[in-house]
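seq as requested:
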Amino acid sequence: MPAQNGNLLIKLGVVLVLVAAGIAAAFIGFRETAIVAAVKLGPAVQAVSGSVEVHADHGLTPIQSEASGRVVWVSPSLDPGKSFRKGDELVKLDTRDLQRGIDDARRNHENARARREIVRRNNPELQVAQRALENLERLQQRGEVSDEDVARQRRAVAQIETQLKLADFDAEAGEAGFKSQMEASDLALERMTIRAPADGSTEKVFVTEGSLIGHGATVATFYFKERVVIAKIGEESFGQVRLGQPARVRLLIYGSQEFDATVSKILPFADEQTQRYTVWLDIDLPPEKLIPNSTGEVTITVGERPNQPLVPRRAVLNNEHVWVVKGGRVEKRPVEIGFQGLNLAEVRKGLAPGELVIVENLERFRDGQRVTIEQVE
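struct tokens:
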């Protein structure tokens, strides 16, 4: 009987041990899992963020005609979305009437000039007067005519020569007027061809072959090839921005891809409505990749310190505490935060490299709580 009682006690003890182990295992199994990351050394970056928008230099610009007429040709480069270079021919107007007028004016001028040359070389009035003067001068030498007769004839020759000089002067003035007329005609002819005022891309076209347009009519609108990337920075961060600071830009049309940029211009006044300041960026992208009116985000690096303890920004509570996991227990640790970049925060005091901090669901934990851990990079 005593042996049976002993066996019973042993069995009971084994059961109690198993039950206790099960309870402990269950308790451990229900512990909160803490997602943690290790404190690492690296460059501490202070960055400010803002929104960005891509603008074409000068915005949307009209291409206007400087002449009136009928459109006889439209360049394929003027199709919406197509690109052209400064000086490219885009639209031609009918020049036939203008060209006929130019040809007629040139022909009439050449004829008039030829007639003047003939008259000038073979002027009968001057020839007669000169021969009469020569005869009088011979007779004067023989004493057959008076000095007054000779002087009178000389005045007659001089008068004819003066009239011819005045005619030459008028001819020269006519030449100058004709030259001015031809320059104006050539300019009018040139304006019948509408050329690209700058490198750019067509947005809309408003004419087709056969259209009648007037002076000043808009034939198309276009965007300049040059692009301006403008960032809008909040008032609380603007004071840290300086020319030449590096930046990273993410444009929504390119998803999560980021591009290097540099602060190139700072406007010293804020938008009256939003109180945000304007910063221009030089971005490492060809202009054709910068689509006008596209938007995105920017982070501008305003400070940097090498080889500093870093934690994910999401690990920091109210900018002054973190949850540290040590020996399976949670510890609320006061810290001094320094530079804050887009994803990482510098810890000036309170943490050492290698310590583990909780980075997700911070509201679930309390000081002294036991947890299991799952470490992430």
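The two ends are 64 Å apart (CA to CA).
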